[in-house]
Amino acid sequence: MKLNQPLIDGHSKGLFVIAATPFTEQGALDLDSTDRMIDFYLEHGAAGLTVLGMMGEAAKLTQEEGSLFLNRVLKRTGGRIPVVVGVSNAGTDNLVTFSHDCMQAGAAGVMITPLSTLRNEEQVVNYFVEIGTRLDPQVPIVLQDFPQVTGVVMSVPTIERIFSNVSQVVSFKHEDCPGLTKLSALRAQDAKRRRISILVGNSGLFLPQEMARGADGAMTGFAYPEMLAQVCAAYAKGEPQKGEDLFDAYLPLVRYESQPGLGLAIRKEVLRRRGAIACAHVRAPGPKLSALDHQEITSLMQRLDIRLGK
After folding, report:
1. Could you list the residue range(s) of the whole structural domain that residue 180 is in?
2. Inter-CA distances, 228 with 91, 112, 201, 250, 259, Å
3. pLDDT-based confidence at 85, cuts 50/70/90?
4. pTM attached to this predicted model
5. What is the tally of structural domains in the chain?
């Protein structure tokens, strides 16, 4: 690892934006837009970034493209904020090698989700224990819990066993749904073990309630990241009413962007309209927005401006 590179830990907080991956109209990696997008996230309150995640279209990138994109992000951030990298892979050898490569390049940690082929919770624990034994002890891990996509359900006792047996796990990305009771149960264990940072996903749909139950921040995407950052900050300052009122103003667009299967295309189009990226292209197989979709986005953005007094 590089000297003095920022690393995530059990106290990481605020907004870790799940970064989109910009492409040209022809589907090529757009590195100029990558620079613009990173600047946009920094200007709008990102405390950290997460790249090569599910919403970053990581599975549609070649290995060379993934490395090129990561290095461009790290160069642009310049160590100002931590960058977490999604490294989940069907092959453990590949996962471990890529994780170490990412850390050597300057990443702040890696995010890992359980394989969809794991059939019971004992297998889930054993999977992460094996990864922990093979990764360098200094590599911080974000444990992602997203059963709606992976099909893998992790109970609170199973998650706690992973925390106990894999010292590198310092953060938990909470995306179970419904999951508020689960979040509360995990936070209640703080007095009995080392502290784990809890960052929440699901497009921010339940962010106020999750922050009220003890989340440290969000690790998700939204085309208006400043709202997510400001809501996290309001709860951190003990101003929940301010945070919830702000969230309510954006809620129609949050809900619209969270549509399964279409959300990334919507997010990229709004990012394009806001000047963060040059093109809203989503690589195939991926959704295409209709003329009516574009009209609805225009209406929602205009209504948001009115609510915000712009």
Report:
1. 14-239
2. 34, 23, 11, 10, 18
3. very high
4. 0.96
5. 1
